[in-house]
Design brief:
heterodimer; A: mainly alpha; Rna Polymerase Sigma Factor, Chain: A; 2 domains; 10 helices; elongated; disordered N terminus; B: mainly alpha; 4 helices
Chain lengths: ~250, ~80
C-alpha cells in the first residue's frame, strides 16, 4: 500500500497543504528548507551538515579527539536517549546510551560513511537497546501502546454511542502553520507536551514527523510492528492537536 | 459506512497514505464537516510538529563523556593503550 500514491486531497475551504506521500524515501524537497531542527535530513552523507564537515568530524572522532566526542554527544545524545527509552524504558536507557557511545568510540575508525553519522548512531543505540531488552527478558517497554490515554480524542468521551461526534470539533481561528509556528507560547506548550509524551510515542513522533524517517525504518529502529508505529505516531499527533485546540480557545496551555 | 470515531482513528493513516479505506474515508468526509475540520487540524498539527524547533534540555555532554571514558578505560585490556 505504501507504493500507491493517491490523488491530492482537498479537505479545505481555503487552505491547501502538502500531502505528498511520506512513505517515499526522501522527504519532499519543500521540507528541506523549512525545518529548523539542526540535526535533520542528513540521511545520506551529502546533506545536513555537509559532507566535508561530517567527514572531518568523523576523522577527528577516529583519532579519539575529546572535543569531537563532546560535540557529537551534545548534538545527538537526546535523540539516542529517546530511542533507548522507547525500547528498554527509563530504567536502562541511560546505561544503554552510554554503552552505545562506548561502541561508537571503539568502532568509529571503521565507520565507512555509507550512511550519515546520525543514522549510524541511531542504528547503534537501537541495537544496544534491543540486546539489553532481550537480556532483561521482560517487557519493560512499549506498555504505553495498549493503554488508552484518558482525555485523548479517541477515548470515547468525544463520541456518541453511534460513533458520531459528541460535540462539534472546535474551530481554529488560526489555521496557518506559519502563523502558529510564530507563536512563542504555543511553541513552548508543544515542547513541554512533547517531553511529557510516553517514551514510545515520543520516539515514534520524533523519528517520523521531525526526522522524516520512513515507517519501515522506524519499525526496525524501535523494534515494533508497522501498525504499532502508526498508532504511536497518531496518538502523539492527537495529543499535540489538543494542545493547539486549547491554545486556540484560551491563548494559553 | 464509516462513522466519525472510525474516521478519527484512521485519520493519520489517511494523511500518511497508509490505509486501504481511503475511499470510504473520503466518502465520509464529503458529508461530514466535523471530520473534515478534524482531519484538517490534524494535518496542520503534523506540519507544525514537523517544523518545530525542539528545545530539549541539552545533554550535559561533559558529564556523559566522562562516564563514557570511565567505561572505556574499564573495558580496555592491559595490553592495549
Amino acid at each position: 500500500m505504501a507504493s500507491v500514491k493517491l490523488a491530492q486531497i482537498n479537505l479545505h475551504d481555503s487552505h491547501e497543504f502538502n500531502t505528498s506521500s511520506p512513505m517515499t524515501q526522501s522527504p519532499p524537497a519543500s521540507l528541506e528548507d523549512k525545518v529548523p531542527y539542526p540535526l535533520l535530513k542528513n540521511k545520506g552523507p551529502h546533506s545536513g551538515t555537509g559532507p566535508a564537515d561530517e567527514s572531518e568530524l568523523i576523522a577527528r572522532l577516529a583519532k579519539g579527539d575529546d572535543r569531537a566526542f563532546r560535540q557529537v554527544i551534545a548534538q545527538h545524545h537526546s535523540l539516542m536517549l529517546s530511542i533507548a527509552r522507547a525500547i528498554v524504558g527509563d530504567t536502562f536507557a541511560d546505561d544503554v546510551v552510554q554503552e552505545a557511545w562506548v561502541c561508537v568510540y571503539n568502532n568509529v575508525a571503521n565507520f565507512e560513511q555509507r550512511s550519515s553519522l546520525k543514522t549510524w548512531l541511531v542504528t547503534i543505540v537501537s541495537n544496544q537497546a534491543k540486546t539489553r531488552l532481550r537480556k532483561e527478558s521482560r517487557q519493560v517497554s512499549l506498555d504505553q501502546l495498549d493503554g488508552e490515554v484518558s482525555g485523548s480524542y479517541l477515548d470515547g468521551v468525544h463520541f456518541k454511542t453511534d460513533g458520531h461526534w459528541q460535540q462539534a470539533v472546535p474551530q481554529w481561528s488560526v489555521e496557518s502553520p506559519d502563523a502558529l509556528l510564530e507563536e512563542q507560547q504555543l511553541q513552548s506548550c508543544i515542547n513541554r507536551t512533547l517531553t511529557l509524551l510516553p517514551p514510545a510515542q515520543k520516539a515514534a513522533f520524533i523519528l517520523r514527523d521531525i526526522e522524516q524517517q520512513s515507517f519501515e525504518d522506524i519499525c526496525h529502529i524501535l523494534a515494533v510492528s508497522a501498525a504499532n508505529v502508526r498508532v504511536l505516531v497518531h496518538r502523539a499527533r492527537l495529543t499535540l492537536m489538543q494542545v493547539i485546540d486549547r491554545y486556540q480557545e484560551t491563548g494559553s496551555c | 459506512m464509516l462513522n466519525c470515531k472510525q474516521v478519527a482513528t484512521l485519520a493519520s493513516d489517511y494523511l500518511d497514505n497508509n490505509t486501504s479505506l481511503r475511499w470510504q474515508i473520503r466518502l465520509h468526509l464529503l458529508m461530514c464537516a466535523n471530520c473534515r475540520r478534524f482531519i484538517r487540524h490534524l494535518q496542520i498539527t503534523r506540519d507544525v510538529g514537523a517544523r518545530m524547533a525542539i528545545n530539549e534540555p541539552g545533554a550535559d555532554a561533559e558529564a556523559v563523556w566522562n562516564k563514557v571514558q570511565t567505561r572505556i578505560k574499564k573495558e580496555a585490556q592491559p595490553d592495549q593503550e
